[in-house]
Amino acid sequence: xxxxxxxxxxxxxxxxxxxxxxxxxxxxxxxxxxxxxxxxxxxxxxxxxxxxxxxxxxxxxxxxxxxxxxxxxxxxxxxxxxxxxxxxxxxxxxxxxxxxxxxxxxxxxxxxxxxxxxxxxxxxxxxxxxxxxxxxxxxxxxxxxxxxxxxxxxxxxxxxxxxxxxxxxxxxxxxxxxxxxxxxxxxxxxxxxxxxxxxxxxxxxxxxxxxxxxxxxxxxxxxxxxxxxxxxxxxxxxxxxxxxxxxxxxxxxxxxxxxxxxxxxxxxxxxxxxxxxxxxxxxxxxxxxxxxxxxxxxxxxxxxxxxxxxxxxxxxxxxxxxxxxxxxxxxxxxxxxxxxxxxxxxxxxxxxxxxxxxxxxxxxxxxxxxxxxxxxxxxxxxxxxxxxxxxxxxxxxxxxxxxxxxxxxxx
Length: 411
Known about the structure:
Elements: H1 5-21, H2 23-28, H3 40-44, H4 51-56, E1 70-75, E2 85-89, H5 90-106, E3 114-117, H6 126-137, E4 140-143, H7 149-158, E5 163-166, H8 168-181, E6 191-194, H9 201-211, E7 214-221, E8 226-232, E9 239-241, E10 246-251, E11 265-271, E12 282-288, E13 290-291, E14 303-304, E15 309-310, E16 315-317, E17 320-322, H10 324-332, E18 341-348, E19 351-360, H11 364-382, E20 387-392, E21 406-408
Parallel strand pairs: 3-4, 3-5, 5-6, 6-7, 18-21, 19-20
Antiparallel strand pairs: 1-2, 7-8, 8-9, 9-14, 10-11, 11-12, 12-15, 13-14, 16-17, 18-19
Helix pairs in contact: 5-6, 8-9, 10-11
């Protein structure tokens, strides 16, 4: 992905004063004269930023504006290690709202819609981001936050919500309850905007079919504003990233070499307008590719493909490296297997044991055949044979936030 002239102009403008405004970058680029960055090749020689850098800068070492310009902070949703705190200026918040409103418009959502917001509020960027965009668009926000499914359903019916926003895990939980109670015909839902965790095609189809909605994938991370920096369009072929605010690259996760469009690697993002905490060549750890060519929807903004996983969510069993996305692919092509699964990894008497629990409506011999088929496909696709254990539909836990699916007790 080549920098456009407009993007490079914004980067050079940022670089002109960056080291003066930011002690973080004054240290990081101590041996680099940013005025010398005049070409694509020059830019690609700049060092990456990492989450570890931001953790070392805790609490506000990343801040690049005076205190009086900071109007808000947000923090990543991670539960381990030192948190990452990102300061926002009023302009940052406004830019984020503009991007999010653009996401809603791209999904065909209008000021006449009523948007039920179920992601969490607080330090996490999710709920407040969905609300910001909704208000900027001019639609009605129904700021429910997570949980309390009974009240969610009541508001959904009484207020005639037309759009549901959620994590895929909570959207599935709502879909199952709505189907179980036969409520679908009493709802006005027409679209869903889903984000915060990767999910497979089988899960997507279940939610879309059970709720009778068109689903759009939304992308974002706290370090780069939050959700709303990109979304899928009506073509449902990748997510557009707003290139007037962000520049994206795909790099080899091991070497850091920039990869050509179309090749899968790690997504790296540079902010072009962010004031409170600008990020230069930030490694997201998300694995994807830039989809070559122009989208049939007509949007000029580049697209990234559905995320295949993260560089840090790979797990290794019996000499095989695998990602959750590969497990989901196996489920997708196993007849009778549903979308929900758990992977249990144990070491018993010095031997790794891999168990894949998955839901199915099948029983008896049909269930056993499904288990055998899944184990066979898993071996063919990934390289090792798991113990495949089918369980009844609804038996695996559902989450109001993100669902944990990999449990490794070896360490």
